[in-house]
């Protein structure tokens, strides 16, 4: 039994216990403890994060001449850490009051918990896969278990989940075709054989490989134009499920892309594939796909009026940063991409949790029906504040460090347009997350929310814990960069030389210990000037406000929330054309038309004539 | 460098920034006055204003975030000044660099936005929505400039960028080597100050001074201090990137005052742009000029 065996067995046991223990009271706490045990199991393999050799599993299965095996390397370990961490905090969040509330409102709590456990298990299995066959099986398990989580919440959720699974199946078909191609060209589905066969592949074969696997993993990652399913499906998933899926599920696609494109095929052969009649090669094409995945979903998020949708759209956009960073293939950019996957999970999960805490207390996440909650839910506000600073990529939170590395990588790489695209995405995020926090927590408190209280501790503690991680890994990015460097080494990327505080380089250094410390020193002086200077301030009621000479009363809605960026939208509004929706619709209609034609062909109109024609043709074929 | 010297620098840099910033506010008011054929305020008026605002008897708070917003707005700039090298003092410029500075500068903006948000006055929120839109507008040409500079000098370390320019003399200044980027940068930096003609987010007659609508006393005083820092930071950053930084304090002060005074003198003549026109203008001319400049730098 290796450490990996133990971990996978523990994850499987968790699923089995959930299956058997349906009637157990406080099942949620057992689940949390088991996730905690899985986390400890991962930490037992902690040496992987510091450059130790891969940990194999003792399980091997031979199928039709192919050997299926499982192993953990530093890359798997990093992603597994995110997965189990997200599972742990999500199950903690639902273990107490949120779970009871969910059950009271008619939700099937047991199924939700089971789906969470199944998701974590299947993701660990996927991350451990040691060849393309076990990868494919793991991939399908992950796809279907995500479906299980998405489909729990009524008709809308089911519709969104079905849309997801349609995309996922298309991706799976593409990946299966990719496997066929690998088997045909490399003669085996082992990683090593594929890697060895890459130099012998012709360009069309290599293109085929990139496109098929790119599509397979790209669906999960929500890469443009395969992203349409994601926001709706995630936002319809019940609270902790959404925070889990939002934090990590999509990253499985990134992991797969890194495995196939970077580790097995290698970025050099991809960069050698020129696209005829353009200045681009295949790597730059993918980088542009990543850049568009940053910009378009981010600016779609800007228009959302539901907090969950807003966050889910940002989730798609943030994936673009990760892919962009990894595809750069240099030490800084790829470290940024990998680190962003970790950082993003640490702030996206609590952001979803904060939104669901508000929903738990007020019953809505509609940004036009909230406001002023900071006075009632200060801890949730704090969590959201830390989360949005991370999401927007501002110092001193961890999101800044990974984005800094990506920007720096793009400058080193000499990619001005991609750099501008990445920064434009960041600005869009800043606008959008301010709207999120403003419309939820700032502004006027509504009359019906006057009695609202802070979310219970069972919910606030995991949120605050994750917020602390966002801050600490922003203050000491070296902690995560160690793991990232080990992952870089494992997939054959150049390794980032780093310090505890960031990066030291003649190209430009970053020392977050100094930067953050001085920011807090600055705030300290600012606070001193504010609180020590001048008279004590007197707090006034929110209706004691300037209103152009009118008196405000409790029934007056005095809040600016709808159409928040009206001026900007007057300029860029016409650019929102729903082209991808249109494309999806057109594709769906085409398939429907073809299906109807085929159905008409063999079933409805004049079957006798078709039968006669086919028989005649068959006879002619036999005779000749 | 010894700890003591560094600590002294870290204290002095924001202090100098504040004093110079006060002088810049005075200069701006005087420019405005002269254009309107007035005399303008006396020498110490900006200081009197700060003292007056802090000394007001009535201080109205709309909640803790309102207070913290002001603290962040001032404190963020105090921190940012230590990332900005001036003659004889580098502070921690080498540990942050250009990109970090650009992002640290957004923190006071965020603080202000949070503080205004809690005031529960839609005029303030509309002001912030406009200010953030303006940020999106002027920062796109500005990041083009940031990329051009970083590419040209091969580093984001501001101390090295200054050293490289000073070693080459005035002919090697950023403005001489990258004139188009310098023009784009000047327009973007001027827009970032939120002065005429880009002050739609204040628009007193329409949204009652926007973000300032619920600010009085030391809250407004904090914003006044923030404005001093903002003028100083923008001009020093521009001088660092394009005008070779400061060889000594006299030249340095001359450069930074000129950087604020010249565009302001021209800008006072323009009427205020609406938000969408502001976006259109800044996404068109400085972006175009900047992209052409970038192409020339990278050729």
TrEMBL record, chain A:
<feature type="transmembrane region" description="Helical">
    <location>
        <begin position="107"/>
        <end position="127"/>
    </location>
</feature>
<feature type="transmembrane region" description="Helical">
    <location>
        <begin position="6"/>
        <end position="22"/>
    </location>
</feature>
<feature type="transmembrane region" description="Helical">
    <location>
        <begin position="285"/>
        <end position="302"/>
    </location>
</feature>
<feature type="domain" description="NADH:quinone oxidoreductase/Mrp antiporter transmembrane">
    <location>
        <begin position="129"/>
        <end position="427"/>
    </location>
</feature>
<keyword id="KW-1133">Transmembrane helix</keyword>
<feature type="transmembrane region" description="Helical">
    <location>
        <begin position="457"/>
        <end position="476"/>
    </location>
</feature>
<dbReference type="InterPro" id="IPR003918">
    <property type="entry name" value="NADH_UbQ_OxRdtase"/>
</dbReference>
<feature type="transmembrane region" description="Helical">
    <location>
        <begin position="133"/>
        <end position="152"/>
    </location>
</feature>
<feature type="transmembrane region" description="Helical">
    <location>
        <begin position="206"/>
        <end position="226"/>
    </location>
</feature>
<feature type="transmembrane region" description="Helical">
    <location>
        <begin position="512"/>
        <end position="532"/>
    </location>
</feature>
<feature type="transmembrane region" description="Helical">
    <location>
        <begin position="254"/>
        <end position="279"/>
    </location>
</feature>
<dbReference type="GO" id="GO:0008137">
    <property type="term" value="F:NADH dehydrogenase (ubiquinone) activity"/>
</dbReference>
<feature type="transmembrane region" description="Helical">
    <location>
        <begin position="607"/>
        <end position="623"/>
    </location>
</feature>
<feature type="transmembrane region" description="Helical">
    <location>
        <begin position="341"/>
        <end position="358"/>
    </location>
</feature>
<keyword id="KW-0812">Transmembrane</keyword>
<protein>
    <submittedName>
        <fullName>NADH dehydrogenase subunit</fullName>
    </submittedName>
</protein>
<dbReference type="GO" id="GO:0005886">
    <property type="term" value="C:plasma membrane"/>
</dbReference>
<dbReference type="GO" id="GO:0042773">
    <property type="term" value="P:ATP synthesis coupled electron transport"/>
</dbReference>
<dbReference type="Pfam" id="PF00361">
    <property type="entry name" value="Proton_antipo_M"/>
</dbReference>
<feature type="transmembrane region" description="Helical">
    <location>
        <begin position="164"/>
        <end position="186"/>
    </location>
</feature>
<feature type="transmembrane region" description="Helical">
    <location>
        <begin position="74"/>
        <end position="95"/>
    </location>
</feature>
<keyword id="KW-0560">Oxidoreductase</keyword>
Automatic annotation (TrEMBL), chain B:
<dbReference type="InterPro" id="IPR001694">
    <property type="entry name" value="NADH_UbQ_OxRdtase_su1/FPO"/>
</dbReference>
<feature type="transmembrane region" description="Helical">
    <location>
        <begin position="249"/>
        <end position="269"/>
    </location>
</feature>
<feature type="transmembrane region" description="Helical">
    <location>
        <begin position="92"/>
        <end position="116"/>
    </location>
</feature>
<keyword id="KW-0472">Membrane</keyword>
<feature type="transmembrane region" description="Helical">
    <location>
        <begin position="171"/>
        <end position="189"/>
    </location>
</feature>
<dbReference type="InterPro" id="IPR052561">
    <property type="entry name" value="ComplexI_Subunit1"/>
</dbReference>
<protein>
    <submittedName>
        <fullName>NADH-quinone oxidoreductase subunit H</fullName>
    </submittedName>
</protein>
<keyword id="KW-1133">Transmembrane helix</keyword>
<dbReference type="GO" id="GO:0005886">
    <property type="term" value="C:plasma membrane"/>
</dbReference>
<feature type="transmembrane region" description="Helical">
    <location>
        <begin position="6"/>
        <end position="28"/>
    </location>
</feature>
<feature type="transmembrane region" description="Helical">
    <location>
        <begin position="128"/>
        <end position="151"/>
    </location>
</feature>
<dbReference type="Pfam" id="PF00146">
    <property type="entry name" value="NADHdh"/>
</dbReference>
<keyword id="KW-0812">Transmembrane</keyword>
<feature type="transmembrane region" description="Helical">
    <location>
        <begin position="281"/>
        <end position="298"/>
    </location>
</feature>
<feature type="transmembrane region" description="Helical">
    <location>
        <begin position="219"/>
        <end position="243"/>
    </location>
</feature>
